[in-house]
Design brief:
- It contains four helices and seven strands, in the order E-H-H-E-E-E-E-E-E-H-H.
- The chain is an alpha+beta fold.
- The protein has one domain: 2-Layer Sandwich (Alpha-D-Glucose-1,6-Bisphosphate, Chain A, domain 4).
- The chain has a seven-stranded antiparallel beta sheet with strand order 1-7-6-5-4-3-2.
- Strand 3 and strand 4 form a beta hairpin.
């Protein structure tokens, strides 16, 4: 599955970059987020629960940030396992200033799901992934654009 989009976030580019590069901040925006563990500055592990119809799985993901060009470009590669299923994700983003204090994010993701989750939930996989993407970006925007306390 291939996904891509553009988001406009009403905060400066550096703030968006810092948020996205911090697994403890960005992790909770992942739908189904359960836990995160930082391995090194570019690698982290996350546990994420996913449900498609009656099929539910918790993936143990290892995510590695690669090709970093702060604060404008990054790629991430993730591999995750759940009982009987696997997922591989390659994502890319580029950030640009869209005006004073506003950032535009162009992003793409290639997702390959295999195993039980793919075979039993194949018809619903794309729509579920699209809903999860919307939830992620809604959370991201709410957290980044929230007034500082």
């Amino acid at each position: 599955m291939n996904f891509a989009g553009t988001q406009t976030i009403a905060v400066p580019i550096e703030k968006v970059w810092d948020f996205l590069m911090d697994p403890y901040q960005v992790g909770p925006c992942m739908p189904g987020f359960k836990a995160v563990e930082v391995i090194d500055p570019h690698t982290f592990r996350a546990r994420v629960g996913v449900g498609i119809a009656a099929v539910k799985a918790t993936f143990a993901l290892e995510v590695r940030m690669v090709e970093l060009e702060p604060p404008t470009r990054a790629m991430g590669k993730a591999h995750g396992l759940a009982p009987g299923s696997a997922v591989d994700i390659t994502s890319a983003m580029s950030l640009s200033e869209a005006g004073p204090g506003t950032t535009t994010m162009q992003w793409s993701a290639d997702v390959v799901v295999s195993g039980t989750l793919a075979s039993l939930g194949a018809r619903l996989l794309t729509s579920t992934a699209q809903k999860m993407t919307i939830q992620f970006f809604t959370c991201l925007q709410m957290k980044l654009e929230a007034p500082s306390a």
